[in-house]
Amino acid sequence: MRLYLTRHVRERMEQRAFTRAEIEQVLQAPVLSYPTPQGSIQYEGTFSTGRTLKVWVVAVEDESGQVVPKLDPSGRLIVKSAAWKGE
User: Fold this and answer.
1) CA-to-CA dists, residue 3 to 6, 68, 78, angstroms
2) What is the pTM (predicted TM-score) of this model?
3) Exposure b/e, 21-32, CB count within 10 A at least 16 = b
4) 77 burial level (CB within 10 Å; 0-12, 13-18, 19+)
5) How far apart, in whole angstroms, are the C-alpha atoms of residue 78 and residue 69?
6) Are 43 and 52 in contact (CB under 8 A)?
7) Average pLDDT of the chain to the nearest whole number
8) Which residues does residue 82 pair with via DSSP β-bridges, in sequence order?
9) CA distance readout (Å), 36 to 21, 39, 49, 59
10) E-strand stretches of the chain
11) Which of 9, 23, 78, 79 lies in disulfide reach of 58, CB 3.0 to 4.6 Å?
12) Does the pLDDT of residue 87 top 90, yes or no?
């Protein structure tokens, strides 16, 4: 999966102790996803530890009015933030 990780999410990875691989896992097989009022799509994935990681990607509205992930000029998904649920 091709991702662009913003500086913000890279800082959060260090602060909140999660990895790029965990972000990828959530995005590949989310248990929940929905658009947010802030122009994002929020994805959630639960791990075997019982912890749930929330991942936000930049979104746009397509021609049909559906909210879809926005890709950068190189075709990468733009991940803007992430956090463990409840933290």
Assistant:
1) 9, 15, 6
2) 0.93
3) ebbbbbbeebee
4) buried
5) 8
6) no
7) 95
8) 55
9) 24, 6, 26, 9
10) 3-5, 32-35, 40-46, 52-61, 67-69, 77-84
11) 78
12) no
